[in-house]
Design goal:
alpha+beta; 12-stranded antiparallel beta sheet; 3-stranded antiparallel beta sheet
Amino acid sequence: MLPPGSNNAAGISFFCSRNVDRTEALSLHKEGKEDKTKNKTKVYTSEFFHTYWESKPLHIIRNEESYFKNILSSKQLDKMLRENLLYYTKNVDVVTYENGERQTHNPDGRAIPASVWDYYMNGCSVRIMNPHTYNQKVRDLLSTLQEYFGTMVGANVYLTPPGSQGFAPHYDDIEAFVIQLEGHKNWKLYAPRDNSEMLARYSSRNIPRDELQAPIKELTLKAGDLLYFPRGFIHEASTDTEEHSLHITISVYQNTAYTDLLEKLLPAALKKASENDVDFRKGLPLNYLKHVGAVNSAKNTSERKKIFSKVKELMHKLVDYALVDMAADQLGRKFMYEALPPYLSVSERERSCKEDGDRMENGVIRNIVSFSPDTMVRFTRYHSQRLVIEESGVRIYYCTENANVYHGEEEQSLELDNTLINTITGLQNTYPQYVSIENLPGDDEIKKIQAISDLWERGLIVTKEPLDIEDE
C-alpha cells in the first residue's frame, strides 16, 4: 500500500500487489520495448501521466500470472456469494452478448451461488458490482488508490466462461484500469469516433458493429497483465474456447473534470457578481423576446447584436467573481461523502482511535488517554477530510466513518470554531509530517487540544506515539 507522502516520482506502483520500494520505478514488461538484461522495462509514473493518461491505451505485460493473485480469485468470489447477501441487479448481473444483442438475464431475489454458476455454465458472464463491500483486500486497494488519485475510486469484477462475450461494444465515463486476475481475455479497443466522445462525460449505449471503425488495438490480456484506457474509448472483450477470464476493472476520475468544477463555480460566481456589479442587475431591452429565441435565431437586427454583445461582456466580467477555491471545496465535500474510509496500517491503527484510547474491562474504564501541547499529530490522510467555509459556518467533512456501501451512511461532518481555521490549515499543510499541537497556528491552547481530540475521536488524527495514559 502507498505510504503517506508518496508522490509521482515513483513508478506505476499504485497497482502493485506486493511490497516494493516506492522510490524506485516498478519493473514492467511493456509492448514494443524490452530491457535485455532483465527482460523487463520500467514505466515511470511521470511517463504514464504525460503520455497515456486521458490520451491513449496502455497494455502492460508482465509474464507473471501470480502477480495480482492476492487481490481476488474465483474461489474467493464463490465464498463472497456464499457468505454475503448479494442480490441480482443490485449487486450481480448475469449477461450475454450474442449475434449483436446484449441481454441481461437477472432473475429476482438473492444471487445464490448455485443459481449464479448455472448461468455461468450456460455461457453468461457474471458482473459483481462494488465487490469491495464484501472483500477486505479489494476495499484496501480502492481506499489506497483514492488517496493517490484524490477522487472516488470504484470497481466491478467480471467472470466470463470460455467462448463467451458478455457486453456489447461501448465506452465509459471513467478512466479504466483492467487487472487480469485469472485466465485471459481478448480485447478490441476503438478510438473515440468524434470530439464529443473524447473524455466522455457519460457512458454510451450499446454500439452496433456497423457503427464501428477498425480497432486501434487488439490484444490478449493474460493473468498478471494490466490494461489502461481513457474514458470515451470504445471497447469490447471476449474469451476464447479454451480459457475462462476473471478481471477487476478499477474506475477513477468519474465527474472530476473542469466541467464539474465550473458547475459548482458558475452559480456562485453569478450570485456574487449580481450582488456587487449593477451591470448584472440591469434590465433586458424592451421587447427583447422579439429579437432572441428560436423563432428569431435567423434575424440580424441591431437589437439582437446588442444583446449578444452585452452577454459576452458580462461573461468576461464574471471571471472576476469566480470563487475557484470555494467550488473546489464543494467537490471535496462531495468526495468525502462518496469515499471509502482510509486504509490504515497496523502501526497506524495502534496510534489512532481504532486501537488506542479508553477501554472497558470488567466494568472499569482503563487506558484513559489525553492530549498535551507537545503531542505530535498529523491527519490520518490528506484526503480523509475537507475544511469547507459555508454561509452557515465552518465545517470539516470527512470519510473516516463512511460505510463500505456507497452512501450507506449520512454525510459526516464536524462544526468548527472560526478561530481554528488556521489550526486546521496548518495541520493540512504539514501532512504527512507530524507536528506538535503547540506549534500549530492558533493562540488558544485549550481550544486547539479540544479540536485535535474531537478529530482524533472521529479517526481523523494519528499520533506519532501512542497517547499518554492518565491512570491504570
